Amino acid sequence: MGLRAGHRRRQGEDPRSQSGATHRHRPGEAGSGPVSRRDESLTAEVRRLADLEAIRDLARRYAHCVWTRDVPGAADLFTADGCMDTGTQPPLRGRAAILAGYQNLLGPAVFEPFVHNHVIRLCGERATGVCYLDLRATLDGRSLIGSGYHEDEYAREDGCWKFRSRRLTMRYLVPIEPGWTMPAPPPVPAPRPEPAR
After folding, report:
1. 143-165 burial, b if ≥16 CB within 10 A, otherwise e?
2. Could you tell me if 101 and 92 are in contact, meaning their C-beta atoms sit under 8 angstroms apart?
3. What is the 3-state secondary structure (H, E, C) of the chain?
4. b/e map of 49-68 (b: 16 or more CB within 10 Å)?
5. What is the pLDDT along the chain (197 residues), one digit of tens a residue?
6. Distance (Å, whole) CA 154 – CA 5
7. Under 8 Å between Cβ of 74 and 155
8. Sheet-wide strand order for 142-157
9. CATH architecture for segment(s) 41-175
10. How far is 64 from 51, CA to CA, in rounded Å?
11. Residue 197, Cβ neighbours under 10 Å: how many?
């Protein structure tokens, strides 16, 4: 009956404990060492991908704020001690300075940035990156076209990725003629109906 000679099963005792066989974990069962390590590795990879996407979205949201002239929204994408260096003025340090600086910068001017080729290096709760930029702008009534890149430092603040610093380098920003600041062209005429046959 599966009992060794001289051994009597106690009431409620698991008969499997008498067989001398050890229990083997099935794949995916709790306590399985190799599966646990694999799960931890998968969790870490998902976290890494989520962090990369959050940082890429940070750059996209910054561009959207500049397009829509959302100055408070742009300033909120920086850490409390964040720094913005446009390369043409003294760096703006802290959210209050960034807010005031962007209010002056985006007052009369129009900036339409397109961001791409975002390269990121993660290091725990910090990261660095380079984000490339194509720019259309209107300054002093002139149409300008430019290209450059942002050198960024990122930090997680209150669970969200934010800019710790941004440094803009423009390779060129030149006027283009006739540009897009000229009066709007007349509307395109609608197609004429075909003559009756």
Report:
1. bbebebbbebbbbbbeeebbbbb
2. yes
3. CCCCCCCCCCCCCCHHHHCCCCCCCCCCCCCCHHHHHHHHHHHHHHHHHHHHHHHHHHHHHHHHHHHHCCHHHHHCCEEEEEEEECCCCCCEECHHHHHHHHHHHCCCCEEEEEEEEEEEEEECCEEEEEEEEEEEEEECCEEEEEEEEEEEEEEEECCEEEEEEEEEEEEEEEECCCCCCCCCCCCCCCCCCCCCC
4. eebbeebbebbeebbebbee
5. 454 545 555 565 555 555 444 445 454 455 555 668 888 889 999 999 999 999 999 999 999 999 999 999 999 999 999 999 999 889 999 999 999 999 998 888 899 999 999 999 999 999 999 999 999 999 888 999 999 999 999 999 999 999 999 999 999 999 998 777 655 556 656 666 666 66
6. 70
7. no
8. 92-93, 78-85, 160-175, 142-157, 126-139, 110-123
9. Roll (3.10)
10. 20
11. 3
Residue type, 132: Y
Residue type, 80: A
User: What tokens does 14 get?
Assistant: 């698991």
